[in-house]
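debug: dumping io for the single-chain case to check the tokenizer round-trip. Nothing else runs in this session.
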Amino acid sequence: MTETCSMLDRSWLRYLRLSLVMLVTVSPLFAVEVQTWSQHTAADFENGKQEGIVVTSQSRVELARQLTPRSDLGITHVWALAREADGSIVAATGGPGLVVRVSPDGTIAKLHESTDQQIFALAVDKDGSIYYGVSPNGEIFKRTRDGNAQVFFATEETYIWGIAIDASGALLAATGPQGRLYRIGPDGKGTILFQAKQKHLLSMALGPNGMTYLGTSNDGLIYRVDPEGKGFVLYDAPQADVHAILLDERGRLYAGTGTPERPTFPAGVQHQPKRFPLELLFPAAAVSFLGPLAPVADAPAPAPSPSPARLPARTNIAASGENSVYRIAVDGQVDEIFRERCLVLSLALQGENLLVGTGQEGKLYSVDLNSQVKQTLARLESGQIQSMLPQPDGSVVIGTGVPGKIWMVENRFTGKGILESSIFDAKLQTRWGKGAWQGSVPTGAKLIVEFRSGNVEKPDETWANWTTDSSTLPLSRFMQYRAILESPDGRQSPSLSDVSAYYATINRPPMIDSLDVPNLINNPIADASAKLEIRWKASDPNGDKIVYDLDVLKEGWPDWVAVAREHAGNDFKWDPGSMPSGIYRFRVTATDAPSNRQGDKLSASRVSDPFNLDRDPPAVVIASAKQVSKRIEVSTSAKDGQTRLTAAAYSLNGIDWWPLFPDDGLFDSSEEVITFQTEERIPGSYLLLIRFRDSAGHLGVADTVIRVE
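debug: decoded output
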């Protein structure tokens, strides 16, 4: 019986939210608005520290399968595994190249040792003989049950990628780098059955009616080869390398790709698409394996160019670094049943589930062949699951790389697992409310979620102790949770799908970062209908909604005068109307009242630089006007109480206006003196007009009448 539960059901969650609102409004220190930190996606959980747990594709945290180490061989890779009749496991390794037998009681025996070589493939015959291929020598050895080992067949190739024994007792060997498939009889005599255009036949599986299936490097082709050596391309995968091939009892073929993420090349650098497949798995050793290619005669004609295959069910092309498992039905229909940003290095069947061994993070996936739903079974400490061997009891033997170890993935869950979440930063001192989680806990299993908090980003001894009641945590900025999953009998795992924590930060006042008023010295307001545009920038540390009060003050006034209240925007166009001339200042007050109750709201103010409001024209004075010869000599001055003078002119009888300039040559102040003479005038009386303009556009005029004799 499985019981679905959580710390709080929906009704309790509603009650909690209401209770928290009531709680935080008691104190004036905290914002009314309650916020939520929640983790519920696979990415959320993956960011945490994992021990004995897995994150499934359905974004659930569950216990991983029980992992039991079978042997640590002190080597780099475990390339292939096979099972003997008595249950012993035979492993082919690399770095160095060994063939070892692990007995059911754990005893390890070395059956073959090749220093600085690799043994990628092996097979166990029904009579107990073991066949294995040594690279880069390209030799296939046979070790009989009595312990006699010798070279069975020399392929004159460099790499033996796969070995299998067909129904007739013949040995098939997939090789590289000349892309040849060999058939070797029981007498040790072999011929080339098939040669591909691709250099490496990376994977191989035997099917009914003498059919052989091959996966290649570089072009990602999947071949079917009949007993006569006729090759047919079943599918041309978007990825370059097909590292694993497997057939089920219904004749369906599964092919897994293992193409690494493409590097980014600088502009102008030509990308070289050809790669040597060994670089994928052990780049440091790949160079030492390159040797001269031996000539081989009597090879069949190369396979025909790939013919179009039906597109898989998922039509979007995999991105760089993504790899897939394709299922090819008997009628040739292709479906993509798995895709992840990983390398698919090995495949195995376990009932109605396909096991997918990956790198570089060492994850073991299970794909339900009916629903195509995938889940993560285990995550190994090794980076590459290079070989798998299902056992009759439902367990799976795993061979890993870097380092090379043999593991038993048992058909039960580990007893205990822990997920320690990433650190949540509330940015401010925070009061924490009760936490909540959702998931399922089967009968007999256990799931505990605990919280802790502190004021330094990395947890240390100053952090509060773990507690299931996060509302008891002290005021702090950072928070973290951990989930403890337990299954004493290993039969069923608890499951966690959501963790939430409610909190309210200490209320901080808003901040006004800037307040700008136009420069009225150069651009004063002159028109009574013109408006003054004021702009400001403000923010609130708590993320509260802000409104603004605006006030104005003129020098000489006893207090500020309100202009606007609870203004919502970050700018305001002030209509000065009939305000008198003078020096003014603006004040903007920001308040977080919309997000806090009356007693808890906070505010901050900022005052602008002073600015002039000019309503008066310049005062113009004609100090003297007299006749000099036939000209009129004039001395005049003007003064403005608020703004700079910008222009001057004179006119006789108001007919034409002639420009004037200050005695110092520049209109650069609010007071200027000008001395000038008119052109020669005929005798008579003249009306002399002097006009000054200020930067606000106001005109000041003075006049006098003078007679020329």
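debug: round-trip ok. The chain has three helices and 51 strands.
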